[in-house]
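Design job #97: recover the sequence.
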């Protein structure tokens, strides 16, 4: 294959299995993607059967591992679908296969959908969640939890003040175990925010400009981009679709690359990307 020009800030039309070979070793800092689920996008991509899915995907995962930097992460949103009346284990086949390639399976995040597609229950209820798998080449990967803290539901500043005051009188509270942490948060003014869990609550819904039939919400890749990369890092989506990951990356002041097989999606996403700018306030 003759490699096309691959420029930061653009999505390239083509097969990621081939285009990944055009990227240099360790040239990408974060991959956030959602590949076509088995047999579910036949109208847009060549459907891959559940039984053949792992053998199709694992060579791609191997190339992703090659291009990923030592401190990089691979975040993949995928869910097993139903085949012959039961859930098919092809996603678990992918997970096990990636571990055999040397990937570290760091965590599984749950995307809890606030507005799942309604169905009439038959033998299962409507899908209210999807899994997001976090892999890394090494255990020393980029991780910035401070960037994704959320407003605390509890007034932790008052709690810290009371604990500190009580701690100076005796040893019967949490402050006695973590005095430096409590006082550090009070001084920094950051005690009104809390770290999120690995359950992400977000509504399903396409971006207004996206034409892809299964775009995930922009907040989803934005969360992982802030958590697992730094400004100036290179973020890749090898199954870019409508370009949601790339838009989120550019807004977060990251360099970004995307690949996709569907020319219409590439054209639409690149048009949008040209009008997206770095937002300095994003960590």
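Job complete. Output follows.
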């Amino acid at each position: 294959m003759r490699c096309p020009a691959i420029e930061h800030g653009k999505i390239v039309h083509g097969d990621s299995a081939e285009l990944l070979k055009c990227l240099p070793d360790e040239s990408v800092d974060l991959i956030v993607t959602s590949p076509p689920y088995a047999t579910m996008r036949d109208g847009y991509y060549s459907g891959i059967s559940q039984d053949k899915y792992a053998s199709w995907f694992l060579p791609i995962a191997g190339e992703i591992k090659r291009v990923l930097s030592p401190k990089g992460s691979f975040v993949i949103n995928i869910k097993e679908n139903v085949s012959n009346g039961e859930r098919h284990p092809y996603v678990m086949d992918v997970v096990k296969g990636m571990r055999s390639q040397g990937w570290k399976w760091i965590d599984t995040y749950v995307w809890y959908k606030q507005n799942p597609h309604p169905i009439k229950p038959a033998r299962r209820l409507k899908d209210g969640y999807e899994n997001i798998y976090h892999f890394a080449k090494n255990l020393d990967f980029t991780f910035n939890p401070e960037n994704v803290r959320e407003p605390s539901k509890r007034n932790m500043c008052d709690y810290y003040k009371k604990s500190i005051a009580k701690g100076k009188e005796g040893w019967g509270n949490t402050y006695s175990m973590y005095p430096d942490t409590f006082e550090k948060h009070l001084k920094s003014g950051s005690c009104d925010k809390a770290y999120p869990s690995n359950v992400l609550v977000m509504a399903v819904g396409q971006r207004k400009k996206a034409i892809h039939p299964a775009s995930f919400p922009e907040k989803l890749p934005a969360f992982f981009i802030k958590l697992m990369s730094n400004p100036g890092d290179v973020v890749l989506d090898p199954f870019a679709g409508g370009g949601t990951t790339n838009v989120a990356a550019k807004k977060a002041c990251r360099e970004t690359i995307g690949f996709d097989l569907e020319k219409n999606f590439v054209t639409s996403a690149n048009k949008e990307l040209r009008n997206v700018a770095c937002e300095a306030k994003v960590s």
